[in-house]
Write a structure and sequence with these properties.
The structure is a single chain. The chain has 14 helices and 15 strands. By secondary structure, it is an alpha/beta fold. It folds into two domains: 385 residues, 3-Layer(aba) Sandwich (Alkaline Phosphatase, subunit A), CATH 3.40.720.10; 74 residues, Arylsulfatase, C-terminal domain, CATH 3.30.1120. The strands form three sheets. The protein has an eight-stranded mixed β-sheet with strand order 5-4-6-1-7-9-2-10, with helices on both faces. A four-stranded antiparallel β-sheet has the order 12-13-14-15, covered by helices on one side. A three-stranded mixed β-sheet has the order 8-3-11. Helix 7 runs parallel beside helix 10.
Length: 494
């Protein structure tokens, strides 16, 4: 059988519920809705360690977090894995190309890709003036290098005045063609022009948005600026303690205390999503115009979500749905996956580690023994099937460090710093508004999920369990022992 072309469309910080097809009442995503309506949408897809580096380690290696070793956010740790998604597809006869974000170390580590046109966004650790010239983001990042050639040596994504973890939003100040979202699309389309037509290809179009800064072109802000938007979800269990403490900080973990700034954050986030959607549409049209769409499989996902002020929280690394629930769509042209269950929704638990084996399966390539994930193709053909009944997620995050067990119907959370537990019935309460941890009728189920977590943590160096019970207050780590040396200037997640 002819090997299909493979297009992986990756985004950064896109919530699983922020698609029109997923039922969002405000955000408009007509092109992504088209992909979902012609393929299979996984409504219970997760990022088990929801921040950029750890999530992408799962994507590129197919490993669970306790195997790839990244359980928090830390820059400057070398990526040295024997088997990677691009490396295995390259060995299987594919020409492999990435355009956009990698977020690996060193910056020009290709992870098995034949070529990378890099744009990692604004990485503080890669802007340190003490770095060797070649490792500076301003030199190693292709987008920044191009932007300075086009607009002058001082041009940067921070010209808007917005920090790259901020809730502050404003329209892009330059022509739209200079926006990083457009750049990824433009260079992905250019790859279609330059590719070897005699070989199958793997293209990873890796977009930065809707990760802050919320800086879509002005047109996209106008789509939402006069709309009444759904307010953030605030659970009955939530406190505004951290909002009062941090809500006046531009890069706070709580989001803004000012309701108008909160609304502006929503507008900016949704504007970035619709701008992204239209650029993905542009890429899809180019795939069709170049005659490769019908022979291609397309997978769309994100590395993690965005709390967007839900529960008085902002950004990621949390165990709640806004942070860890991600979109995942698989579709294909008419000559590929002819038995796909088109326009269907799969409720089985999927995770980023499943993408590598899925793409290798589609390519007819061998899946390495190091891979923990599962191919999702059986679910694409029959969404009623099941690959796993539960998933362990986590994130080292100082006082907010957390572990969680999620199933199709519910979620158990353990906050390892304090020992606080939570339990949510996601089937009846998908937005986690009511904590049932003390509900007498739920205690047997809570014990069952707690046992799953204890079993997942046995043998971990942090000492989270003795095999019988969970032990709170243990010092978490961002990198498990044995996974690379830390660069002296490596920075913690803020």
């Amino acid at each position: 059988m002819k090997q299909p072309n493979i297009i992986l469309i990756m985004t950064d910080q896109l919530r699983g519920d922020c698609l029109g097809y997923a039922g969002h009442p405000d955000v408009k995503t007509p092109y992504l809705d088209t992909l979902a309506s012609t393929g299979v949408m996984f409504s219970r897809a997760y990022s088990a360690c929801p921040s950029c580096i750890a999530a992408r380690a799962a994507l590129h290696t197919g490993m669970a977090q306790d195997h790839h070793g990244r359980v928090g956010y830390k820059d400057g740790i070398a990526w040295d894995y024997e088997h990677t998604m691009a490396g295995e597809l390259s060995r299987a006869g594919y020409y492999t190309q990435c355009v956009g974000k990698m977020h690996v170390h060193p910056l020009r580590n290709y992870l098995g890709f034949h070529n990378v046109e890099l744009h990692d966004g604004y990485l503080g650790a890669a802007r340190n003036t003490s770095l060797p010239y070649q490792e500076s983001q301003l030199v190693a990042d292709d987008y920044f290098y191009w932007l300075k050639e086009e607009l002058g040596v001082t041009a940067d994504v921070t010209d808007t005045g917005i920090e790259c973890n901020s809730f502050i939003s404003r329209p892009w100040m330059h022509e739209e063609k200079y926006h990083p979202t457009n750049w990824v699309t433009e260079h992905s389309i250019d790859f279609l022009r330059r590719r070897d037509p005699g070989k199958p290809f793997f293209l990873m179009a890796s977009y930065l948005r809707p990760h802050p800064p919320f800086d879509a072109p002005r047109h996209y802000f106008s789509l939402y600026s006069n709309k009444e938007l759904r307010p953030p979800y605030i659970g009955t269990w939530e406190t505004d303690e951290y909002l009062k403490r941090d809500g006046r900080l531009y890069d706070s973990r709580s989001g803004p205390a000012d309701p108008e700034l909160m609304r502006q954050a929503q507008i900016g986030y949704y504007a970035c999503i619709t701008h992204l959607d239209h650029q993905i549409g542009r890429l899809i049209l180019a795939l069709k115009a170049s005659g490769v769409y019908d022979d291609s499989i397309i997978l769309f996902t994100s590395d993690h979500g965005e709390e967007l002020c839900d529960h008085h929280m902002f950004r990621k690394a949390r165990p709640y749905e806004g942070s860890c629930h991600i979109p995942l769509i698989i579709t294909a042209g008419k000559n590929v996956l002819t038995d796909i269950a088109s326009s269907s929704i799969c409720t089985d638990i999927a995770e980023l580690r499943d993408i590598m084996p899925t793409l290798l399966d589609a390519a007819g390539a061998e899946i390495p023994d190091s891979v923990d994930g599962h191919s999702l193709l059986p679910l694409v053909r029959g969404p009623e099937r099941s690959l796993r009944s539960w998933l362990h997620g986590e994130h080292s995050f100082d006082e907010f460090s957390n572990h969680w067990i999620v199933t199709e119907k519910d979620k158990y959370i353990w906050h390892s710093w304090t020992g606080t537990e939570q339990y949510f019935n996601l089937e009846n309460d998908p937005h986690e508004l009511t904590d049932l941890i003390n509900d007498p009728s739920c205690q047997d189920r809570i014990r069952e999920l707690r046992e799953h977590l204890i079993g997942s943590l046995i043998g971990r160096p942090e000492g989270y369990t003795d095999g019988r019970q969970l032990i709170a207050g243990r010092q978490g780590v961002d990198i498990l022992p044995g996974f690379g040396a830390q660069r002296p200037d490596a920075q913690e997640f803020k």
